[in-house]
Amino acid sequence: MELQAALDERLARLAPDQRTAATAPPGPILCVAPAGSGKTTTLVARICWLAANGVEPGTITAITFNKRAQEELARRLVDALGPSVAGRSPVRVRTFHALGREILLAAGRSVELVDRDALCAELWPASSARDRRRLDEAFSRLKLDLRADAAAVARDPAAGPIAKAFLAYQAGLREREVLDFDDLVAEALRLLETHPDQLRRWRTACLHLLVDEAQDLDRSQLDLALLLAAPANQVFLVGDDDQSIYGWRLADVRRVLGLAAALPSLRRVDLVTNYRCPATVVERAVRLVEHNRERFRKTIVARSAAEGRIVLAADGSDETVRLGRLLASWPRDGSSLAVLARTNRELLPAVAACLELGLAFRAPRVVLLAEAPEVDDLLDRVEEDGPAAAPLLVRLGRLRAALGEHLADDDGETPEAATSSGPSLADLAAALLGWAPRFRSLTAFRAAVHETRGAVKRLRSDDATLTLATVHGTKGLEWDHVGVIGLETGRFPSARSVDDAADPARALEEERRLAYVAWTRARRSLTLVYDPATPSQFLLEAFTPEELGLDRATSVAA
After folding, report:
1. 173 pLDDT higher than 60
2. pLDDT of residue 407
């Protein structure tokens, strides 16, 4: 009775669309949950509804996309269910990889993990960081998307260099008796497909299965979810096709759009209200994403009295200057703030602006030149100052040439690529070369590096109200005031990501979804920063030329 009373109170607080989803009869259900629509609230209510209606909590499993979401959902379930389910097996809340690990351990399999980049560096000592990133992407595609079997690859007489590298890598894993991160899902799926006893055990544990962020699943993750849910198919999938932005992680929006083919009796329930964003942000973000063809037809509205604004900041100034203006325009009232960019490299001018303004910031994924320990070693290689010394730029240029590496091109960079390994020596040398023109001597340059390092140490803080992040790293996050930078032709959408894609039209749609995700992080204001000489096509799709104020510095869209 205690659980039922708490459930009744919880359901009464839900919006009608959330309540419909949370109380839908068991069976295959797809809950389409746009940005800010309260999907986690709905997931919690769904689990409480199942438990209150007699479902044993130990047969309920919820799978989240990442650890942050898993921790939040688990915490909210503890608060929601509390002592009412004491003494009963708890609801299982896992990421796909954590669930895979648990499945393998329960079957007596070893789950000692190895870092893929480290193993590749050991197997191919001459490989560059960029080489290893390419291998990483290829190996993940072989394991998770193609579900390649090493034995079958070995029998292929036409196997190319990537296939042969994959065989060498798999042999390296076997020799060391270890797995890599992808294997937690791939090997768990293979185990369940070949061991009926294990499959029965885990189908019982997942009799009522809930899957979050269904639009971002790779092929193996979706196969694992559907295998566990069958044959009862009491599966509740939550996702939003408009937020499918991880194609480089092997997600494909067509999977969520085509779920009805895999689950013929699938029922779709839509959440329709964005409770996060101002009405004008919802309107323009929806206007933008509606240019995509690969999406569900749906209604998305703002909550009533959702006040706030969009600032269209047309500014052709130097990047650091216009970012300084953006940061200075925001209130200093404790509000949460975020500058979002397409790539990590585009955030470096924002860091420079923070240093000039003395603003504390958090930038967990941004590698700063001054912080790289290799910088001191590189400067030690530069010829010292002296009467016979060449100009500083010439000396740094010689250093750059002597390294004999190609500068990595990170246009279209992903968060994983940016953090899987640090910048190469060539990257650092090139960055030093770009920083040095204002200094006449190596001594002065060293002093500037030291001073900047001290400023970064003072201002970079995990507790700062200002966040600098790539859009890929912001799913599930929100801030009071958001600025999206780089909304210019060639930058956002990324010309390289679109032009180099096997299907440029589909790549452009993912870029548009990425912009939609960026814009819908804002709770009170959204500032879109762009050069009026080269505005992004996304701006032209969401606003009229008059609204964009292409002949003015700044305009406000009501």
Report:
1. yes
2. 45
Give dist(CA 191, CA 285) in Å, integer. Answer: 43
DSSP-assigned letters across all residues of 376-392: HHHHHHSPPPSTTPPPH
Question: How many residues belong to the chain?
Answer: 558
Alpha-carbon span 343 to 247, nearest angstrom: 15
Separation between Cα atoms, residue 450 and residue 445, nearest integer Å: 9
Question: 216: number of CA atoms within 13 Å, CB side?
Answer: 23
Give me 281's structure tokens. 């942000």
Largest Cα–Cα distance in the chain? 89
For residue 265, give every residue at least 6 positions away whose Cβ sits within 8 Å of its Cβ, in sequence order, or none.
27, 28, 233
Burial of 249 (0-12, 13-18, 19+ CB in 10 A): middle
**Amino acid symbol at 554:** T
Handedness of CA 159, 163, 165, 170 (dihedral sign): negative
- The model's pLDDT over 44-72, given as tens digits with 9 standing for 90+, comes to 999 999 999 889 999 999 999 899 999 99
Which residue's entry shows tokens 């599930």? 476
- Confidence band of 152 (pLDDT split at 50, 70, 90): confident
369 has pLDDT over 80: no
Task: Give the list of residues 6+ apart from residue 379 with CB closer than 8 angstroms, or none.
Answer: 432, 442, 445, 446, 449
Residue 87, classified by CB atoms within 10 Å of its CB into exposed (0-12), middle (13-18) or buried (19+), is: exposed
- The one-letter code for the residue type at 212 is D
Res 537: pLDDT: 96
Q: How far apart are CA 209 and CA 489, in angstroms?
A: 43
Query: With bands split at pLDDT 50, 70 and 90, how would you rate the model's confidence at 423?
Result: low
pLDDT, tens only, 240-260: 999 999 998 899 999 999 999
User: How far, in Å, CA of 65 to CA of 98, rounded?
Assistant: 11
Whether 284 contacts 540, CB under 8 Å: no
| pTM of structure | 0.88
522: nearest Cα among 273, 338, 390: 338
Report the C-alpha gap between 402 and 418 in whole angstroms.
Answer: 24
Q: Is 186 helix (H, G, I), strand (E, B) or coil?
A: helix
Which residues does residue 32 pair with via DSSP β-bridges, in sequence order? 239, 270
- Distance of CA 361 to CAs 273, 372, 419, 450, 518, Å? 32, 18, 19, 19, 19
CA-wise closest residue to 33 among 191, 215, 197: 215
**Selected residue with higher pLDDT from 89 and 92:** 92
- What are the pLDDT digits (tens) for 263-280? 989 999 999 999 999 999
